[in-house]
Specification:
By secondary structure, the protein is of the alpha/beta class. It has a single domain, classed as NAD(P)-binding Rossmann-like Domain (Rossmann fold, 3-Layer(aba) Sandwich). It has six helices and nine strands; from the N terminus they run E-H-E-H-E-H-E-H-E-H-E-E-E-H-E. Strands 3-2-1-4-5-6-9 form a seven-stranded parallel beta sheet, with helices on both faces. Strands 7-8 form a two-stranded parallel sheet. Helix 1 crosses helix 6, helix 3 runs parallel beside helix 4 and helix 4 packs parallel to helix 5. It is globular, with a radius of gyration of 17 Å. About 40% of the residues are buried.
Amino acid sequence: MKQVLITGATKGIGKSTAMTFAEAGWDLILLARDLRKLEDLKKELSKTGVRINLVVCDLSQPEAIQDSMPQLIKNYGCPSVLINNAGFAYNGDLINMPFDKWQEIMQVNLTSVFQICSFIVPSMRKRGGGLIINVSSHAAYNAFTQWGAYCISKAALASFTKCLREEERENSIRACTITLGSVNTPLWDSKYVNSDFNKDSMLSSKKVSKTILFIAEQPESQLIEDLILMPSTGAF
């Protein structure tokens, strides 16, 4: 059974990925914090005929993850593919950044991935393997003013993925980082992000989702460990 768990599933890359995987015949577990948006997306995807399960969880709240993940596995089983897509950004100098925003960036972009994997990986071991795709950014390998905390969180995510990959090879669990340049998503509309970039030159979330599907549909005997996808015009 092909079943994928997607976090941050109701907008941007997550929503496009849900659509692309459903169109390819994958059953879905969609996780996000807004039940109404989840239900709207499920209705939109109902014509594909795939099984769609919804999980409401705010990844900025560690306790919510601890509560929801055991129920997710109990109710829907272990996904064959986990896509950690949810992300948060906040512009500001590192030293002047409010501590709560620093914590929120690290929680959503890094710690939530650790928490989710701590539940999913043991289940993947029992089922004989699986694939984890962590959605990262070229900010992981660069330094941008006003984006310091975001850069740091994505750099740590890339390192987390490498370490997890080496630890779980013997359990047939594969881990991949997809590193993206600028993508035209609602992130740029957030009140916490100051942006005057040309969105027309950015990657589209639909094209990104097709690349994620390409990674997921590789045979189990091989793995795309790290994939970098950039706009042809450059990062911004």
